[in-house]
Every structure is written in structure tokens, then in C-alpha cells.
Amino acid sequence: MSETIKAFAYGGIAGVGATLCVHPLDVIRVQMQISKEKSSLMSVSKRIIYSEGPRGLYAGLDAGVFRQLTYGLTRFGVYNILEDKCKATTGMPASFLQKIGFGCTAGAIGAVVGNPSEVCLVRMSADSKAPTAERRNYKHVANALVRVVSEEGSSALFRGLDSNIARCVLLNAAQLATFSQSKELFKQKFSMQEGIQLQFSASMLAGLAATIVTLPMDTTKSRIQNMKPDSRGVLPYKSALDCVLKTVSSEGIFTLWKGFFPFYIKLAPHTTISLIILDNLRASFK
């Protein structure tokens, strides 16, 4: 198996493994983001379990796995290839600025590849919050893809692409670059050795950085991808910027960070699990 194929395969395995562990937090996060009412992690969790049962927390799990086999596989693969090629060319580890550039590139490419899965994931995660008569009731991710295209056109699969690219660029620049750089700093400053302790410490810091930087665009993306036209056929938001301006003017600027806690407690373990799996796969098969 070539190194390129390995890089993408490891990324897909790492992303899927982490998603299987933290998907319920993703469902809660999406429902908090699209809500225009005050909500909390506990209140949303109770409502989902009360109305749908525990399985409601796993709504759209197949879409989450599909997302990791498109977006996750691509972003990890591209980043690792760029970082490895840089080291092979110069004989030295990439600088922090270079890692940020690699993260931005990987995020942008991953966003384009994974946007259809993002649309399906957001809609399937949010469906139980809608009134019964307004639910989309997608049976599974394949059904969602087919119905989105047949009912709204193929362009709907790329709805919110601008905000998704911005989100993924910010996420990967913050998450992957911070993780890689933190490992080097912890080794130098605290004499930490390769292993779970080092990986865990670096990934938790990477998760916090990614949450702070990314959440506003993630909230914007979720609202755009979940929106429906009104009775006149007009969509509530024209663009990512329009969504941000309307959200801030009607609900306040901190609405952009709505769901910070579930986003972090989802992203932090997702970051930790996926990067530890990825790190160990690369080390084991190098």
C-alpha cells in the first residue's frame, strides 16, 4: 500500500472511530445551534430522550460516519502528506506557520469533498426538533442524499459551502497545527515522551483552540444547511455573511458561540480519540 493511500486510510479510520464515541454530543450541538430559544446541554438532552428515546441521540449516525469517510479522510490525509513531504524535502519539521498553511489547505479541500455529508448530518440531527408535520424523516444517509437532489436539486448538497470552507479552514488550522506544535513544545519544555500522556495533553489543547476559533462559523453553517424556504419560497439567509448579521442583530453576538460546552466536550474527545488513533497508526506502520 502506497504512503498516500495509507495517509487517507488512517485518516478515515481515526475519524470514524472518534465519531462512534461522541456522536450524541454532535446531535445536541446541532439542535442548540439551530434553536432561537435559550437552551442548555441538559435541557436539549432531556427533550431528545423524552421525545425520541435514547436512540434519538444517535440520529444521523450513518451520516456522521459518511462524513468521516469523506471530509475526515480527506483532511487528515492531505495534512499528513503535506507535513511529511515538507520534512522529507527540508530534513526538518515544518514550522508552526507552515503547519497552519497545511491545515488551511487540508480543511478547504475536505470541506468541498464532505459538504454533502454535512448537509445530511445537520438535517438528520436536527429533524427531531421540528414539528412532526415538518420533519424530513430521512431513512438513512443514502435516502437523504437522493431526496435532497430529487426535491431541491444537486446544488442543495453544497448549501452553506462558503461557511463550511471557512469553518474547516479555521478548524484544521487551529486543531492540526496546534496538536503538532504542542507535542513539540511539551517535549522540549516538559521533557514529555511519545505516548498517551503527550498525545492527550496536546489534543485537549488543540480541541480548545479549535472550539474558540471555529464555533461561530459552525453555528452559521448549521443554520444555513438546515434552513427551509418560507411560504413564498424565499430562504431566510442569502449567504453566510447575511446569516451572521441577522443572527447577531436579533439574538446577540454571543449566539455565534451557542453550544460552546457541548461543542467543546464533543470536539475535545473527538480530537483526542481521532488524533491518538491517527498518531498510533502512523507510528505502527511507518
Content of β-strand: under 5%
Count of alpha and pi helical runs: 9
Q: Over all CA atoms, what is the radius of gyration?
A: 19 Å
How many strand segments? Answer: 0
Mean of residue pLDDT? 88
The CATH topology name reads: Mitochondrial carrier fold
Tell me the CATH superfamily: Mitochondrial carrier domain
Query: What is the structural class?
Result: mainly alpha
CATH class: Mainly Alpha
Report the sheet with the most strands, covering strand number, pairing sense and barrel closure.
none
Q: Unreliable segments (pLDDT under 50, ≥5 consecutive)? A: none
Give the proportion of residues in helices: over 70%
- Which second-level CATH architecture applies? Alpha/alpha barrel
Overall body shape: globular
SSE pattern, N- to C-terminal: HHHHHHHHH
Structural description of this entry:
By secondary structure, the chain is mainly alpha-helical. The protein has one domain: Alpha/alpha barrel (Mitochondrial carrier fold). The chain has nine helices and no strands. Helix 6 packs antiparallel against helix 7. The radius of gyration is 19 Å and the shape is globular. The mean pLDDT is 88.
Structure described in brief:
With 286 residues, the protein is mainly α.
Keywords for this entry:
mainly alpha; Mitochondrial carrier fold; 9 helices; globular
List the helices and strands and how they pair.
Blueprint: H1 3-34, H2 41-52, H3 61-90, H4 96-126, H5 141-152, H6 161-190, H7 196-226, H8 240-251, H9 260-285
